[in-house]
Design brief:
The chain is of the alpha/beta class. 33% of the residues lie in helices and 23% in strands.
Length: 772
């Protein structure tokens, strides 16, 4: 039996389209042993296109029409990389991302959708609103108060007609409803549908008061007009472009066969023409044997076929051929909860068809948002793994691997990873003088400090006191590059709050057991992210140690030189002992631990996750420099695993104070964190942090103003990764400190309370009026 966590195959999914989400759920419900899934997506909410008209009309809210890819990926056990793809090297199996990193794959599936033809209409990119990609369209959809004149819909197909009717209804109740115009380059709307369907749609558009411009291709859009091919100018302050989409430029440039519009040509098995291990489905794919229009129904129905064929390819089974039907039931919204139904020659409109459409659409979204709790166990190691990894036959029969030095990854993997990581970091803009030397072969390094650059350099004179720290964390986000950045910032933070300039670091790495190409790719990306942050803070990676285990771990032993020398706080003076002498400032929002705990349970709102990621990726270096500039006797710490409560009490002890008083109304938290805590989500370390704190709770919250005390405590004891700085500053310096922090990008920094000379332990109060 293979040990848990052993992986042999990287199955990478590009895009969270309608077909790909079916793959995620399929592999979640019935995983294949040894397969690691990775989802690359530029959005964490996947919109369901069928519900866009209903959303535009105001019948659905955001959550109704979106699938939570963050939760679905977690449910599937898939890594989630929030990024966009720029190119693919099919010969060496690498995907190149927009941040200049690259990701290895064994099997690849693309379902990234179509893109608008931005250059087709002059002025469209500057003055038009493209409906695809939908996520970007929703961001640009004007609010009712922002409608300032006539509205033009450019595109007479089903999507354009639906949107025109939906938006017309959305803005119809305004005191001055805007006039609507719909432009179709063809002589009728719905040109691909039966004539009766065009007649029914044109009648619905006319009855809604929408002016039709048939057979008039739009050639130019200005800030105030739409111009057609015959030179006619129609006033329009808002122009929505719903014309035929094309393949994204990066798709068109791939070294693959394409159709005439640049989409990936695929075989009946959904494999690319050239490569058996490259699949594509949905709008991005073109069936060479059965061309079909770009419609969501085909992406939805391709999902089960794509899932089955990916599984079959990996397990060495025959693949299915897909022949999409020519005739299908199309339901097109007519506004006001009516729909037009078409199938072959059949055409009819009725309210019933809207009810049917809504039922189908809601059921589809719920299938991927309301996830079951039980999954089946993975099956045996697949055939493809054995073809890719002949060395599997040499593994110990009992599945027991050596530990200690026997668990080290091989030297070639480390050397290649560091070389590639340096290239990536340099391309990101890292200063070359802080990149590692080409040959790092020792576990330890001797160094002295260079007086002019502060970098690690041999032979320079000693220029002062040095500070050392070590910290490492297990992989808590699935993107290895961002994980590397966070791990470096987390370790460096101890130097920042100690008043030290980082000089060098040694890495501590544990890799998950996997095939060499997979572990090499992971190591490269983790080190690339870390090196980028180390170089950004003028520190050099000088060595490290790697092992192999069940889960990735990354940390650093860091060394810095003291640059902000402080005088010890005199704790025996009366002035220091006075209540309120020291105000407490927190530089970043709280709640990272709660967000990560929710994400592990597939219950995290994507917006909360993105905020938590931004918090962890914000360096504490500038904040520490600002705070040191205010006073020589400032006291500070970074808020990490112990949580705010315990770190604040440690700060009080260092200052010779009895305890701390925290104003719970001033605590900045990541959006959605209080709701997660109210739902019972908590980090596993929370209870240990509570046990370690002797607290006095005298919260006097008013109804409706503060969350319940238990919810507040969940945040106070929540462990933070790469959390903010907690500083005790003189009260007279607090306002100025917050001003400077806000100007430096710490926009949620605030005074959250003060140290107490009389009240021991932790006191929770509303002190807002006293601290303003």
């Amino acid at each position: 039996m293979k040990p848990p966590g052993q992986t042999y195959i990287d199955l990478v999914l590009i895009g969270g389209g309608h077909a790909q989400i079916s793959v995620l759920k399929s592999f979640a419900m019935s995983p294949v042993a040894g397969v690691r899934l990775t989802l690359i997506t530029d959005v964490l909410h996947a919109p369901y296109s069928g519900m866009l008209p209903g959303f535009a009309e105001g019948l659905y809210n955001f959550d109704d029409m979106h699938i939570n890819l963050l939760a679905l990926a977690r449910f599937a056990g898939a890594r989630l990389i929030k990024n966009s793809v720029t190119d693919i090297d099919f010969l060496n199996n690498y995907i190149f991302l927009s941040d200049k990193t690259k990701l290895y794959y064994d099997v690849l599936s693309v379902n990234s959708g179509a893109s608008p033809q931005r250059g087709q209409i002059k002025g469209g990119a500057e003055h038009g609103i493209f409906v695809k990609p939908i996520a970007h369209f929703l961001e640009q959809l004007p609010a009712e108060q922002d409608i300032s004149g006539p509205v033009a819909i450019i595109g007479g197909g089903a999507a354009g007609c639906e949107l025109a009717l939906a938006l017309n209804q959305r803005y119809s109740h305004l005191s001055e409803p805007p006039p609507f115009h719909l432009f179709s380059r063809n002589g009728r709307v719905l040109p691909a549908a039966p004539p009766l369907a065009s007649y029914v749609m044109e009648k619905a558009l006319t009855e809604a008061g929408i002016t039709l411009h048939k057979g008039q291709p739009v050639t130019r859009i200005t800030a105030s007009h739409v111009v057609t091919q015959d030179g006619h100018r129609t006033p329009a302050r808002h122009a929505f472009i719903v014309t035929a989409a094309s393949a994204a430029p990066w798709i068109q440039s791939l070294a693959l066969s394409h159709d005439g519009q640049g989409f990936i040509a695929v075989r009946p098995t959904l494999q690319s023409i050239e490569y058996d291990n490259v699949f594509a489905a949905g709008d991005v794919a073109s069936l060479s044997h059965a061309p079909r229009e770009k419609a969501g129904v085909f992406a939805v129905r391709a999902g089960p076929v794509l899932s089955a064929n990916l599984r079959a390819y990996i397990t060495g089974q025959p693949l299915k051929h897909w022949h999409p039907q020519r005739h299908y039931l199309a339901l097109i919204g007519l506004g006001r909860k009516r729909a037009l139904a078409m199938r072959g020659p059949f055409v009819m409109k009725a309210g019933f068809f809207w009810t049917l459409k809504e039922w189908i659409d809601r059921r589809f979204v719920q299938k991927f948002n309301e996830l079951p709790k039980m999954k089946t166990d993975a099956q045996a190691v697949p055939a493809l793994a054995k073809r890719l990894s002949p060395e599997l036959g040499a593994e110990p029969e009992d599945g027991i691997y050596c530990a200690a030095c026997g668990a080290k990854s091989d030297a070639d993997t480390l050397a290649r990873a560091i070389t590639d990581a340096c290239i990536i970091a340099a391309e990101q803009g890292a200063d070359p003088q802080y990149l590692p030397h080409g040959d790092i072969s020792t576990d330890a390094a001797l160094f002295t400090a260079s007086a002019d650059t502060g970098s690690a350099d041999t032979g320079s004179a000693d220029t002062g006191s040095f500070c050392q720290s070590v910290d490492f964390i297990s992989q808590h986000i699935s993107d290895p590059y961002q994980f590397g950045r966070i791990a470096a910032l987390h370790a460096l933070s101890d130097l920042f709050v100690a008043g030290s300039q980082p000089l060098c670091a040694s890495a501590i790495v544990t890799l998950a057991r996997a095939r060499t190409p997979m572990s090499a790719s992971d190591l490269t990306l983790m080190l690339a992210g870390a090196i980028f942050e180390l170089a950004r803070h003028k520190a050099t990676l000088i060595g490290g140690h790697t092992t192999v285990g069940l889960e990735p771990v990354l940390g650093f032993a860091v060394t810095g030189q003291q640059v902000n020398l402080r005088q010890p706080v005199k704790t025996n003076s009366r002035k220091t002992r006075e209540a309120g002498t020291f105000a407490l400032i927190l530089t970043k929002p709280l709640g990272v631990g709660l967000v990560l705990a929710a994400e592990m349970r597939a219950q995290c709102p994507p917006a909360s996750y993105e905020q938590a990621l931004a918090v962890m990726l914000q360096s504490n270096a500038d904040a520490a420099e600002i705070l040191f500039s205010l006073s020589a006797d400032i006291i500070m710490t970074d808020v990490t695993g112990f949580g705010l409560a315990r770190h604040s009490l440690n700060l009080a002890k260092r200052a010779g104070q009895a305890g701390v008083c925290i104003d719970t109304s001033r605590l900045a938290v990541i959006d959605g964190v209080y709701e997660l805590a109210s739902a019972g989500i908590t980090s596993s370390l929370n209870r240990h942090n509570q046990t370690a704190v002797q607290d006095s709770r005298t919260a006097n919250s008013r109804a409706g103003f503060l969350p319940d005390l238990s919810v507040i405590e969940a945040v106070l004891f929540d462990p933070q990764t790469s959390g903010g700085i907690l500083a005790a500053v003189r009260v007279q310096d607090a306002h100025r400190a917050c001003q400077l922090l806000h100007a430096a990008g710490y926009d949620r920094a605030d005074v959250i309370g003060h140290l107490s000379a009389e009240q021991p332990g932790l006191t929770l109060k509303q002190l807002q009026s006293k601290l303003d």
